[in-house]
């Protein structure tokens, strides 16, 4: 495994760790610019999962035999590695099936508390008629629909922080929406469409001033920038394994220790209980209380290897590298006639992605044009229909970079993008 101290080191070395990237697509060398949807996995991550399955595959936290003990040790070691990577304690990290599931876990559990379950400790989470839940107009559906459902079930009011014509919002916009009635403030750390980076410390302070919980969608930040959840002060957070060099089928729920232990679980069954009678059950402390049933053991072990790889590469270096590529993307796209770029303007902070609209060409047609040239990008509404509707769009094209991308990738994409409108006779 290549573990450069900085990504200014030869990228070919690091790129070689990703076997999928070494192929042709439609007769062209693959240019993979869709990591905001799913990142590719280095060989060390593939090997970690396979080695576990070949040598230690067993039920964790159950059997007393050697394989079960070894599996449990490796499984919990992965939890500790992920916790260190995001600035948390191991007992503040609960495995979920994906980040969407993690966000649903919080919303569903608040719904359980709102119905009077969980005892005295859970009353702090109760949402009642007339209370308010606040999101942003830019949210991914995963951090919108669960809150719509919670509002519908409890009689609360769902409010949102509006975006401007570029899809952006400010802390002042948030202050205009958050009130003394706000019980939950949920927002993305980094928008998966605009690349905007939210002012997290100010939002945490704002929520705390009215006694509201903060729920952070960290799917586009955990893979790409240094993240210290304890230092940020958010109450809950969620992120995905498959966006940070890990496997699908695994998400991570972070919660402050005291909150997770007070929150009543919404999913119940084996592995998360202490005592069960025919009349009632008592639940384990966090994180196991949110991990009912058989666990994604091999996936967790693979994610542990993934965060180890990212730590070795140096997350600050990853961020610097992506910023340079994003600036190259933005500048190059801004010079192509007929493209409307979404999100922060030149010189403003943005994550390593750029979404845009091609005048006169549907995003899916543009995506197929690029794919025919071996370039993989995301097209569609990116699970953010309200944001696209606000911008007057049904879909957009999104190019996103990661640590294994190069300036040559960006340049190949820009050359192809310049040919989209001419190809369609525009």
Automatic annotation (TrEMBL):
EC annotation from Swiss-Prot or TrEMBL: 2.8.1.7
Cofactor section: pyridoxal 5'-phosphate
Keywords: Pyridoxal phosphate, Transferase
Reactions that this protein is recorded to catalyse: (sulfur carrier)-H + L-cysteine = (sulfur carrier)-SH + L-alanine
CDD domains named among the record's database cross-references: SufS_like
Start and end residues of each Aminotransferase class V domain: 31-413
The keyword Transferase appears for this protein: yes
Superkingdom in the source lineage: Bacteria
Record bears the keyword Transferase: yes
Family: Belongs to the class-V pyridoxal-phosphate-dependent aminotransferase family. Csd subfamily.
Function: Catalyzes the removal of elemental sulfur and selenium atoms from L-cysteine, L-cystine, L-selenocysteine, and L-selenocystine to produce L-alanine.
Designated name of the protein: Cysteine desulfurase
């Amino acid at each position: 495994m290549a573990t450069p101290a900085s990504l200014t080191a030869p990228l070919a070395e690091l790129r070689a760790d990703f076997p999928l990237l070494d192929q042709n697509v439609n007769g062209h060398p693959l240019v993979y610019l869709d990591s905001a949807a799913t990142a590719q996995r280095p060989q060390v991550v593939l090997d970690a999962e396979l080695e576990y399955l070949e040598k230690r595959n067993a039920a964790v936290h159950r059997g007393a035999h050697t394989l079960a003990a070894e599996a449990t040790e490796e499984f919990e070691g992965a939890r500790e590695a992920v916790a260190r990577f995001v600035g948390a304690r191991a007992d503040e990290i609960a495995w979920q099936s994906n980040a969407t599931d993690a966000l649903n876990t919080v919303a569903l559990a608040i719904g359980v508390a709102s119905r009077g379950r969980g005892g005295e400790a859970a009353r702090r989470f109760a949402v009642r008629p007339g209370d308010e839940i606040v999101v942003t107009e830019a949210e991914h559906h995963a951090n919108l629909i669960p809150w719509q459902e919670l509002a519908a079930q409890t009689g609360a009011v769902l409010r949102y922080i509006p975006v401007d014509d570029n899809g952006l919002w400010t802390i002042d916009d948030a202050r205009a929406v958050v009130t003394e009635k706000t019980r939950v403030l949920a927002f993305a750390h980094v928008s998966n469409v605009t690349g905007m980076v939210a002012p997290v410390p100010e939002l945490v302070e704002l929520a705390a001033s009215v006694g509201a919980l903060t729920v952070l969608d960290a799917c586009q930040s955990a893979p790409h920038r240094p993240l210290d959840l304890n230092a940020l002060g958010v109450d809950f957070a969620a992120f995905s394994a498959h966006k940070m060099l890990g496997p699908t089928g695994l998400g991570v729920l972070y919660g402050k220790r005291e909150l997770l232990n007070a929150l009543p679980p919404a999913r119940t069954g084996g592995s998360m209980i202490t005592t069960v009678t025919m009349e009632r059950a008592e639940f384990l402390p966090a994180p196991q209380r949110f991990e009912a049933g058989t666990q994604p053991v091999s996936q967790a072990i693979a994610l542990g290897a993934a965060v180890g790889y990212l730590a070795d590469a140096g997350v600050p270096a990853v961020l610097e590298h992506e910023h340079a590529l994003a600036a190259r993307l933005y500048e190059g796209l801004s010079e192509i006639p007929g493209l409307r770029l979404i999100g922060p303007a030149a010189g403003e902070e943005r994550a390593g992605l750029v979404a845009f609209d091609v005048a006169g060409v549907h995003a899916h047609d543009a995506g197929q044009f690029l794919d025919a040239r071996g370039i993989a990008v995301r097209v569609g509404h990116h699970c953010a229909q309200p944001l696209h509707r606000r911008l007057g769009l049904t879909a957009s094209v999104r190019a996103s970079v990661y640590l294994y991308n190069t300036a040559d990738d960006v340049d190949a994409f820009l050359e192809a993008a310049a040919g989209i409108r001419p190809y369609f006779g525009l």
